[in-house]
Structures are given as C-alpha cells and as structure tokens.
Amino acid sequence: MDQYDRLLTLLSGYVSPLNARSVLNRALSHPRIERHQLVERRLAEIVPRIGRAAQLFIDPARSDSLEKELRALVGDRAPPTRILVEINGEADIVRARAAGRRICETFEINGFSVQKVATIISELSRNIASYVGRGQLEIVPISGRPPRVQIVAEDAGPGISGIDRILAGQYKSKTGLGLGILGSKRLADRFDIQTGAGGTRIEVEVIL
Description:
Elements: H1 3-12, H2 17-28, H3 43-54, H4 63-74, E1 83-87, H5 90-106, H6 112-131, E2 135-142, E3 148-155, H7 163-167, H8 179-187, E4 190-196, E5 199-207
Antiparallel strand pairs: 1-2, 2-3, 3-5, 4-5
C-alpha cells in the first residue's frame, strides 16, 4: 500500500469513499503533487491541506479525531492543521498570541513576520474581548513556498458600524474601536471583513 492508498483508507473512515478521494486529490492539487511523489517526507507538507479540505465533508464532531490521526502519520514534522481559541478575556488573548507564535515556529520562521502574526492576533482578539465579550479566533498554518498563516476572528455581536470609514482611516474613536481592525489590515497580506447584525467575521493572511 502506497502513501496515497494509506491516506485514502484513513479518510474513508470519516467520509464516503468518493468524498475521501475528492479531499485527497484537492489537497494534492496545489502545488501539484503526483501520486508517485507522495513519499513519506512530503506528508508533512500535505497533511494540513488534507485536514482543511476534509472540513467540507466531515461531521464536525469527528474533526478533532481525524486531525489527531493525520498528525500521527507525521509526528512532530507537521504543524497543527488549526488552533481554535475561545476569546472571553485577557488571558485568552495571551493564549491566542502564544498559539500564533507556536505555529510560526513550526515553519522555523522568526523575526518581523512572527511579530506581524502576533500583533494581528492580539488586536483582533482584544476587539472581541473589549467590545463584544466573547467570540473565537482560529489560526491556520498554510504550507507552501512561502508558507502563510491564516487568522479568522468571529463573534456574534451587533456588527461594526462605519466599517468603510474605519478601513479608510477616517474614523476617530476615544475608546480605540476600529484602530485594531485598521492596524491588522495594514499588517496583513490579505484582509477580508464581513460584519452585520448577526456578527463579524474577519479573515486575514500573513505571508511568512
């Protein structure tokens, strides 16, 4: 059994065989890795992408179990597919920032890129804690050349008014509301925000 069949068998324990093949082929498609190139030393590169692709099909209750099995294939050579931190207060901001640094360390990255990741995590999680009260922050490593870190902040608050003015740097607030969002946008290599009465979702990517 080659590595492709090994991964296919593992995935078939969580999703249908058809979806398992779809997940695996999608994970191999960017950058393109042929089946014969899927040797053991490349598992660390492909495992995070498999975990993300599987989220489209898997029962959320079994997601953590699949992640553990995937990581067991490569041991400590692969970064975690994601770290999810519930944000309720200052201690959670510290935990989220430390988690971001750990992910950067798995890529053997240091310096300004790590500081950008840590700063964005701090600003977005502090906005949640200060102005909404609770939410969550997801940190996802993305393998590649160069590697990237994706940061997703979500809350179920009332939304952010005047977001266009905030992003344009025209909004002035005595409380600091909006400054963290604008600062994160300026530090990020990709930035997207969706906000409304149902809550706010901010998705950021930083190239390491």
